[in-house]
Amino acid sequence: MSKAKQFSQPGLPLTPPVFYILLSLSLKERHGYEILKQVEEHSGGAVRLGPGTLYSTLKRLLQEGLIAEITARPDAAHDDERRRYYRLTERGGQVLTTELARLEQALTLARQGSVFSRERAAFVPAKAYEHE
């Protein structure tokens, strides 16, 4: 599936960069570098965005109406005027909420099956249970 069509079909999984960018902006308005650092922190280092990936993803999210650029500066006296700040739009919040619900449903199903060990709260391959 092309990246351009990712948001045209509701319910499709978001890519990790898109998911973590939307999640970061759901907490507060941020500038690009702050988003980059938050994505890495929230993903436990699993998702590390380079500037090219970050800004091309932000451009796509802007075009799709999931985020918006804001002109107000949080602290204009101590801010670099070259920074662009972004916020989550209502549509972006809806897309993020749908993704979180999809992940919650998948986690619920995994916990009901024999794939997820609640005691260790970690993924355990199904074959591990065949030998017990």
Identify the strand order in the major beta sheet: 1-3-2
Can you tell me the residue ranges where pLDDT is under 50 for at least 5 consecutive residues?
A: 126-132
Total helical elements = 5
Number of strands: 5
User: Class by helix and strand content?
Assistant: mainly alpha
CATH class: Mainly Alpha
Q: Could you say which overall geometry the principal axes of the C-alpha atoms support?
A: elongated
Number of domains: 1
Order of helices and strands, N to C? HEHHEEHEEH
- The share of residues in helices is 40-55%
Largest sheet: 3 strands, antiparallel
Q: Supply Rg.
A: 18 Å
Please report the distance between the alpha carbons of the first and last residues.
40 Å
- Determine the CATH topology: Arc Repressor Mutant, subunit A
Would you identify the CATH architecture? Orthogonal Bundle
Overall average residue pLDDT: 81
Approximate strand percentage = 5-15%
The CATH homology group name: Winged helix-like DNA-binding domain superfamily/Winged helix DNA-binding domain
